Amino acid sequence: MTTGASGGPGSSGGTGRVFGFGVVGCGVIAPHHARAVAALGNARLVAATDVVAAKAQAYAATNGCDVAEDLDALLARDDVDVVSVCVPSGLHAEVGVRAAEAGKHLVVEKPIDVTLAAADRLIAAVDSAGVTMTVISQHRFDSGFVELRKLLDDGKLGRLVLGDAKVKWYRSQAYYDSGEWRGTRALDGGGALMNQGVHYTDMLRWTMGPVTEVTAICVNQMHEMEVEDVALALLRFESGAVGSLESSTAVFPGMPERLELSGTGGTAVIENGELIVTELMAERGDIGAYGAKAASSGPTAGSASAEPTAIGTDAHASQIADLLAAIEEGRPPLVTGTEARKALEVVCAVYASAERGTTVHLPLEAS
Ligand SMILES: NC(=O)c1ccc[n+]([C@@H]2O[C@H](COP(=O)([O-])OP(=O)(O)OC[C@H]3O[C@@H](n4cnc5c(N)ncnc54)[C@H](O)[C@@H]3O)[C@@H](O)[C@H]2O)c1
Q1: Are residues 146 and 128 in the same domain?
Q2: Full residue range of the structural domain in which residue 61 is found
Q3: Which of 44, 118, 224, 229 is the most exposed place for a label (fewest CB within 10 A)?
């Protein structure tokens, strides 16, 4: 279940304006964008393009839109107001900059791109064109995270002490072999952390605040590729809190992703986007010297932990609804380019620390 910050699936927007969408890159994630757009009353898919013409044709036939011969043809269309950038991660800025320069608003898939320099180019192009961009981080719209955000904003967890994000997933070798860009430094930007773990890196950073220090180990245990399938990092936050980040695609058969936060006021645990533990000292009372009561918990099922396409559409729809509301209201969306860059910076710091074998301090220099 998901909840939009504004609008949401079925919402028709406030002004009656209907936004035309153009999709660039018709692979695995593109159908989720088509379904998310179809779920909104104020959006419609008008065109799609892909460097592989047959993929664009199949996508257009399935989703009822036109094929644009190439990116220029898609950007030349007056009925395309928003471009969904669904190409491999290391091409996001290249495509996004051209779309921004053509005056289009943007939905960019995660990560924003794979280097801070590329992210900065895209953010600058969006700013100078005066368009609005959101970078997908759909879990911010999961109901559990909406509840957790409120607990934090209301100060219910007190001063945060410890935060752990765990994305212990499984991807077969066949997954990495399914696209030439997968598992490459140039276009995937890294392995388990840059591609899969970036979601919960954003959740950890968004809830715990700025990261100042990262000490990490990255290894490849079971895949033929040049990047890691296990990333493990210790983090220090600006607030003084500490935490950890674990991300893998080598944990068979894939475990539910978790975020565990503890503060001076209690503990909250999210699993697969659901808030499964809320233990507040203000409600339970503090625990005496002996006699702690067990925390409540319960497993949940169903995520992309084992199956790459098992991604719900509601959260994408909620995030796109937030973008459209932001355009109409002249405000930034919840996940701007600058927000997405913060998660990318933590991922880059993990890689830098693992490569150098030392603790890395943030902010990083863009490269
Ligand atoms: N939000 C999520 O949960 C989620 C899930 C999966 C993928 N993604 C992201 O979506 C992006 C795409 O991943 P995917 O799994 O769909 O990849 P994919 O390989 O299945 O699809 C990418 C498509 O882009 C096309 N393409 C490549 N270069 C192009 C260009 N210059 N112009 C037009 N088309 C081009 C390819 O031919 C391919 O059809 C990645 O950045 C990935 O991180 C996000």
Answers
A1: no
A2: 19-139+313-335
A3: 224
